[in-house]
Amino acid sequence: MHNTPIWLMNTMVKSSLFERWRAKKAQVIAWYYRGRTGGGFTYWPEGPQQPPQQIHAPMWGRAVVVENEKMYHTAQSNGPAALRRPEGLAINSLMSADPEDPTGWQITTDGKVIQKIPEDEFRFLVHWGADIYMDMAEMKRALDHTDDLSHEMIFDIIISDLRKRGEAFRMPTDPLTDPSFIGLLTRIYDPGQPTIFPPEPEEHFAA
């Protein structure tokens, strides 16, 4: 994480060549949302080219145990469409309790209130994660760094696999930054993005 670019770590996961070193993780995601529009969880357990599955509302106190490093996933939009993209929303916007409503919430940007959210349309998510080890020896190898990968080892493994596949390529002087080599690895190992998305959740209106 401290000396390796994200693109290379993603390639390592997608290639399945580094399962021996992959940090196994378990995550619990829990939702609290009383609204009736969306708010569920969409995931692609069979890969990005296959139809996704969904967990639908009600989402109050529901949870899943997942390993999301290996699975495409996303949250459903939730709440009335008119509340989803308030004017003034920015990367530094903040959510906080609404001081004028004991049950409400608000979004502020640079101290200015840009939206008030009723309690039932506020979706709260809790994400907890843990590292998993199969035995004490595996944990010691990880914590003592006695079986760590180096960049040289990583590219030796990748290049060996490319040659087994019969790929023709020029070995770059700096594989961490060479655009042609990075493009080659993306073409070979990237399974692509999800192609089948469920429709956006529709609002439920009272009869």
Summarize the SSE layout with pairings.
Blueprint: H1 6-15, E1 24-32, E2 41-44, E3 53-55, E4 62-66, E5 72-75, E6 94-97, E7 105-109, E8 112-117, E9 124-132, H2 136-144, H3 151-164, H4 179-189
Antiparallel strand pairs: 1-4, 1-9, 2-3, 2-5, 6-7, 7-8
Helix pairs in contact: 1-4
Annotation keywords:
single chain; 207 residues; alpha+beta; three-stranded antiparallel sheet; 4 helices; elongated
Describe the protein in words.
By secondary structure, this protein is α+β, with helices and mostly antiparallel strands. Helices cover 21% and strands 24% of the residues. The strands form three sheets. A three-stranded antiparallel β-sheet has the order 4-1-9, with no helix packed on it. A three-stranded antiparallel β-sheet has the order 3-2-5, with no helix packed on it. The model has no long low-confidence stretch (mean pLDDT 91).
Please summarize what this structure is.
The chain has 207 residues and is of the alpha+beta class. 21% of the residues lie in helices and 24% in strands.
* Number of E-state strands: 9
Radius of gyration: 22 Å
Please estimate the helix content.
Answer: 10-25%
Strand order of the largest sheet: 4-1-9
Relative strand content: 15-25%
Unreliable segments of 5+ consecutive residues: none
Order of helices and strands: HEEEEEEEEEHHH
Number of helices: 4
Largest sheet geometry? 3 strands, antiparallel
Termini Cα gap: 53 Å
Mean pLDDT: 91
Computed structural class = alpha+beta
